[in-house]
Amino acid sequence: MKHPRTPSLRRRLVFISLITTGLALMLSNIAFMALEYYLSEQDNAKKLTVLSNVIASRSTAALAFSDQALLMSNLEALQADSSIIRACVYNDKRQLSAFYPRQNQQACPLNQDDLQRLYRNSLPVETDILFNNRAIGYLYIESNRADLIARFQTFIVFSVIIFIVGFLLSRLLATRLKNLIVSPLQKLGTTLSQIIHNRDFSLRAPKHSGDELGTLVDLFNDLLQVIEDDNLALKASEERFRKLTALSPVGIFQIDALQNLVYTNDRWRDIHNIAEEHPSLSRWFERIHPQDADMLNHVWQHMITTKESITVEFRVQRNDGSHLWIHLLASALHSSDGELIGYLGATSDISELKAAQLQMENLAFYDPLTGLANRRLFKNRLEKSVKTVLRNGSSTALMFLDMDQFKRINDTLGHDAGDVLLKEVAKRLAATVRENDTVSRIGGDEFTILLTDVHHASDVQVVAEKLLHAMSKPIRIKGQDIITTVSIGITLTPDDSTDANTLMKNADLAMYRAKEMGRNTFQFYSDEMNHTILEHLALEKELKEAIAREQFSLVFQPKISLLDQSVTGVETLIRWQHPEKGMITPDRFIPIAEETGLILDIGAWVLEQSCRQISTLMREALLPSTAKVAVNLSAKQFSDPRLMQHIQYVLDVSGIPAQCLELEITESTLMDDVEIAIRIMQEIKALGVSIAIDDFGTGYSSLSYIKRFPINVLKVDRSFVMDIPTDENDMAITAAVIAMAHKLSLSVVAEGVETQQQWDFLHDNQCDEGQGYFLSRPLSLAQLHQFLQDHRAIAGKP
User: Is the Cβ–Cβ distance between 283 and 276 less than 8 Å?
Assistant: First the structure.
C-alpha cells in the first residue's frame, strides 16, 4: 500500500510558524482596534456629557424666563467644537425653545423614532435643565461620528502595516528556525543512510550544538555505539559458533521452516556418512534403520506440530550393513516476535555407550561372583511370578536362605576363602532346584530361591530338606573341610501375600525364626510370626518409656563356693516391672534393646546401680572384701568407645574396689573381631576389673582364642548343667571345661545348679563356684540383705 506524499518537515515548520504568527498578529490587531474604538467613543461621550452639563447650567435662567436670545447665545458657543452637529433646547412640555444647527444639518428630532435613527449615525446626549431641583426642560446635543471613524480608519491602516511587517519578520524567523531544526535532522538522516548502505556502524553523526538537538545527536551516537558493540559481539559469537561447530564432537544441524536442511557441520556429516555439504532431509531419513523409521517419523512430526523439543535414540545404517546408535536432540527456533524460524538439533554417536550399557545391564542383573541372578533380577522375576499366579491361579514359593556362621569362616580363613565358599554354595543351590526356578544372591551371604508351579506345601518342604542335605556335605577350602549350614525362611503366594515386598518380608521373618530355632533348619511363614513382630515393635516403643519412667529394677543371684559354701559374690540381673503387663523377663526385652541401641542406656544404668547397691553390703561387711559383683556386658556396650570412661566413673561414684567388679561377656561378642576384643579386654584389665566369659560352650570360640583372651573366669552354660547326671555327654563336657579352665589358671562358675546331684558332680570335679535355684533364686536388695545375714548365721559367724 503506497502512502500519499507528505510535505517535508521543513515546509510544515514554515507553514505552521507563519499561520501561528499571522493568527496571533491578526487577533491582537482586531483586539487593539476594538479597544481603540471603544475608548474613543467613551472619550467623546464624556466630552459631550461635560459640555451638555455646562450649557444646561447656563441655560436655566434663560429657559425659565423664556429668554430666546440668551438661549441662542448659549447654543452658539458650540460652534467652537466642529464635531457638534446640532443642539436643541426643549421646555418642560417638550416644545423646542432654541435650536443650533451646523451647516446643512436638519432640525432637531421631534419624537423617539427620530432619536433612534440619530443614535445609529451620531452620538447624541440629553441633559435635564434644572431649576430649584426641578426639570424645566432638557438640552439635546448631537456629535458627529466622523472624527471617530477617521481616527479608527487611521488605526486600521497602522495595524495592517504592523501585521505585514510582523508577518515578514515571522517568515524570516521561521526560515531560521527551519534551518536550526531541520538541518541537524537532515544530517542525522544522511548518517543513518550511510550506515544502512555501507553496513558500517562505526559512523557517527556530527554534533553542532549543546541544546536538545545536540542531546538527540548524542543519544543517536550512543545508540550507534550499542548497536556496534552488539554487532561486534554477535560477529564474535558467530565466529565462536562456527569454530565450535567445526570442532564439536557432536553433529549439529539446522532446518528452516520449510523443512530444508540449511546447515550441517562436519561432524554431523561424518556421523551419518553423508558427503554432501548441503544434503536434503529425505537423504538423511533414508539412512534410518527400518525398525526405527516409523518411531522417528512419529517423534519428528510431533515436534513439527507442537513445536516442543524432542529427544530420541535411533539407529542409522552404514554402507557395510552395520548400524550405529544416534542420540538426537532437537527443538524449534523462534524469532523475538514468536515467529517460527526453523529447527536446531544435535546428534551424537552413542554406539559405544549403548554397547557399554548393554554390558552393564547384563552385569546389573547377575551377581559377578557366583553368576546367579542378583536382587534386581530376582525382584523382577518375583513380581512377574506374582502376576502369573493371580492370572492362572497357580502357586509360587519364595525361599530366603542365610548362611550360618559365614562371618566366622570369612574372618578366620580370609575373604578369598569366603568367596570360594559362596561360589560353592551357589553351585549346590542351583544344582538342587529345577532349571525354571530362580536362584539369586541378594546380599553378602543371603540367597533367595523362587519355586514356580508349586502344587503343595509338602513339595516345598522336600526342596528345603534337599537344600539342607546338599549344604551338609563338607567343602574343601585351603586344605580344610568346612561344613556350612543355612537357615531357610519360606513363604507362599497367594496364601501369604500377593505383594512382592510383603513376600520378601515374610520370608525374611521366617528365616530369622529358623535362626532362633537353632539354625540349619527351615521355617514356613505364619501369621503368628507377624503377630510376634508387632508385639516386638510395641515392646520397643514401651521400652523407651520404661527408661524415662524408671520401671527397671535389679535382682541379685548369689554365687556360692563349692569348696566351703561361702558367698563369693552375686550376679546382677535386670527386671522390667511393666505397669500393665507385669514383670517382663530379660529374654523378652534385652534382644530388642540390643537391636535399637537402647541397651547402652540400660546397661549403663545397670552397671552403676549394681555397684552402688552392692557397695552398701560390702560396707556393712555382709559381703567379704573379695566378693565380686558380676554384671553382664552387651555386645554394643563392649564396642562402645566410652566404655572405659564409664567404668571408671562407676568405680569412682560407687566407691567399690575395681577388683570387686566382674564383667561378663558372651563368646559371640568376643568372636566378632578377635583382635579388637583382646585390646578392649586388656584395657578393662588395666582398670583392675575382672572378666568372665559367659555361657561358655554355646558359641564357637576355639581353645587358641581362649588362651589369648585376658580373662579370669569361665562360666559353664546352664544347658550343660541341667541334664546332669542323666546326660553323660553333658557331664563329660562339663568336666572337660572345668579341667581345661584350671589348666589355664581360670576360675569356673557353673550356672543353673538346681539339684543336689548337680552340686555333688560339680563339687567332685572341683568346680570353683556355682549359682542357681538350688542355692538361691534371684533376690531383691532387701532379700539379698536378709539372705546374707541368714547365711552368715548358719555359717556361725557373728
Answer: yes
- HEC secondary structure over 555-585: EEEEEEECCCCCEEEEEEEEEEEECCCEEEC
Q: Which residues contact 494 (CB under 8 A, 6 or more apart)?
A: 389, 390, 395
Look up residue 185 and give its three cell numbers: 535532522
Three-state SS at 198: helix
Distance, in Å, from the CA atom of 6 to the CA atom of 192, rounded to the nearest integer, reads: 20
| Class of residue 171 by CB neighbours under 10 A (exposed 0-12, middle 13-18, buried 19+) | middle
Grid cell locating 535: 508385639
The whole-angstrom separation of Cα 76 and Cα 79 is 6
pLDDT in tens, 358-406: 777 777 788 889 989 999 899 999 999 999 888 888 899 999 999 987 8
Contacts within 8 Å (CB) and 24+ apart, 56-62: 56/127, 56/128, 56/129, 56/130, 56/138, 56/139, 59/89, 59/98, 59/129, 59/139, 60/129, 60/130, 60/131, 60/136
- In the DSSP assignment, the letter for residue 672 is S
Q: How far apart are CA 577 and CA 126, in angstroms?
A: 138
| Strand ranges inside 152-269, DSSP E | 251-256, 261-264
Residues of the chain short of pLDDT 70, as ranges, are: 1-14, 17-18, 103-107, 109-121, 174, 177-182, 207-210, 212-213, 245-247, 529-534, 697-705, 795-798
Tally Cβ neighbours within 10 Å of residue 702. Answer: 11
Rounded CA-CA distance 154/439 in Å is 131
The 3-state DSSP class for residue 701 equals coil
CA neighbor of 554 nearest in space, from 571, 572, 567: 572
Q: Is the peptide bond before 725 cis (omega within 30 degrees of 0)?
A: yes
- Let me know if 479 is exposed, middle or buried by CB neighbors in 10 A (0-12, 13-18, 19+): exposed
Over the stretch 479-532, which tens digit does the pLDDT of each residue have?
888 888 899 999 998 888 899 999 999 999 889 888 878 889 998 887 776 666
In angstroms, the CA 591 to CA 576 distance is 14
The most distant pair of C-alpha atoms in the chain lies apart, rounded to whole Å, by 194
Cell of 146: 466622523
pTM of the model: 0.45
* Cell numbers placing 241: 559458533
- 525, 496 contact by CB (below 8 A): yes
For residue range 650-680, what is the model confidence (pLDDT) as tens digits?
A: 999 999 999 999 999 987 787 777 888 899 9
SS (H, E, C) 343-389: EEEEEEECHHHHHHHHHHHHHHCECCCCCCECHHHHHHHHHHHHHHH
Residues pairing with 263 in the sheet: 254
* Residue of 674, 606, 678, 682 whose CA lies nearest to 644: 682
Residues making up the chain, counted from first to last: 798
CA distance 647 to 683: 11
